[in-house]
Write a sequence for this structure.
């Protein structure tokens, strides 16, 4: 059963924009925090952004701050990642993640950790050409 489905990836030129979408179902409806991670070829998966479902508190990796915006639509159980001023180094597979449903909450920067999340999507490719 696919509980998180990402879409919106593609090929874009440097300086361009792209918006990723992640729609949740099943257990994710009770998740408190949703996040985005990315994995570039030959590198480990890294944190990008996270958002609390109720307060909409956000936290970003330094590499994307001021360029990316994470948002959530609770009615649709959808989290979006708006990416602008894209750079070739943003090229990666982008993954959506949700924390364990009904789990305790922690300071927002705790959710930069991959082990803070229990449910993962299959990823969507973003390629930024120079």
């Amino acid at each position: 059963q696919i509980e998180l489905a990402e879409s919106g990836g593609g090929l874009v030129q440097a300086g361009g924009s792209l918006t990723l979408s992640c729609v949740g179902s099943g257990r994710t409806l009770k998740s408190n925090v949703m996040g985005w991670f990315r994995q570039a070829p030959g590198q480990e998966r890294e944190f990008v952004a996270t958002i609390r479902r109720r307060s909409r508190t956000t936290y970003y990796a330094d590499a994307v701050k001021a360029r990316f915006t994470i948002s959530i639509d609770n009615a649709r159980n959808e989290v979006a990642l708006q990416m602008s001023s894209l750079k070739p180094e943003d090229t990666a597979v982008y993954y959506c993640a949700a924390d364990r449903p009904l789990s305790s909450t922690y300071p927002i920067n705790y959710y930069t950790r991959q082990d803070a999340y229990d449910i993962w999507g299959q990823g969507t490719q973003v390629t930024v050409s120079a």
